[in-house]
Amino acid sequence: MDLQAELLEHPYSVYDRLRDSAPVCRITGTDGTPAWLVTRYDDVRAALADRRLSLDKSHSKGGGYRGLALPPALDANLLNMDPPDHTRIRRLVSRAFTPRRTEQLRAPIRATADRLLDDLGPAGTADMVAAYAAPLPIIVICDLLGVPEDRRLDFRTWTDALITPDPSRPHAAKEAVPAMLGFFTELMAHKRTRPADDLLSDLIAVRDAADGADGADARDGDRLSEDELMSLAFLILFAGYENTVQLIGNAIHTLLEHPEEQARLRKDPSALPAAVEELARYEGPAPLAIRRFPTEDITISGVTVPAGETVLLSLSAANRDPARFPRPDLLDLDRDASGHLALGHGIHYCLGAPLARAETEIALAALLERYPVLEAAGPAPRWRPSLRARGLLELPVRYDTQHS
Question: pLDDT at position 221, please?
């Protein structure tokens, strides 16, 4: 079995082995090209903040990382940028994801969670990914951006095709890209003629105002190109959905496997914010940070990585490093999980982290409050065959509003 197959089948045992014997090792990357995998917490954390590790694909040497082929209108996003462009664009959108704005969204998020649970009814069995963990974040992020309800299922289908390609539909991922481009082109044109109280309308107003201003009056810090605007909308929608559905689904799955901790949180909901941090550390949504390229030769744990080669930083391995988190394979809701890397670190720290945390906390609170009986049903759930996303394909659950 090759290393990538092992990482899909038994990720945490492989991480344990690599941290001890080869903390920086050469592997076949997610796109089939060579890459360096980094697994120790201290190395990963330092690398996440190292400005010599660039996200700009122009620093990838010939024959290196290829990645997902996106058109320029979707590719000019924060995951491919370094400062100063990264700083400029992140500053523009960060206002939508402040802790204060997140607090204002808590009531609508809870109302959405309650509505989804109403649809489940008082008792039964359901796939908790399809019925709850997936629709909640897509509704929240689409409401924030202003995406019409009748297009939300389309976006979820395209996202799934890109993250976890179906071998029986080899062209689905390629078909998803032009479909998404057409979707965003149409949506932005609509928002320009009929702006509303949503984030996308606000970003369009900023871009168009700066574009039409006199040179003396336009603020360079508020400039967005048309490709940057569309790419930003794509990234907010894509990441705002994808990471959070994994975070919520994995948290539910973990609590099903730890019924004593589930009961504890049901009895004391005030423990949920800290619990979300430990749940994220224990089973985070992204095994790997976005790939990076050294702008010069760098040394990590005694291994020299040449400039231009691909570096993959394992967030999952770092979060299970016993040198940072004692007994890391134990779910411990009393643990101080601060410093976990599930949502990144440094200037590329997840922009929507406050919102993802709030959605997960609220989703768990509503679920545990509604159903005193919540347990796994049917066969063991299947994980997505992906190194990009750590999430479940489905999560069959039996639930009941009445104690059994």
Answer: 52
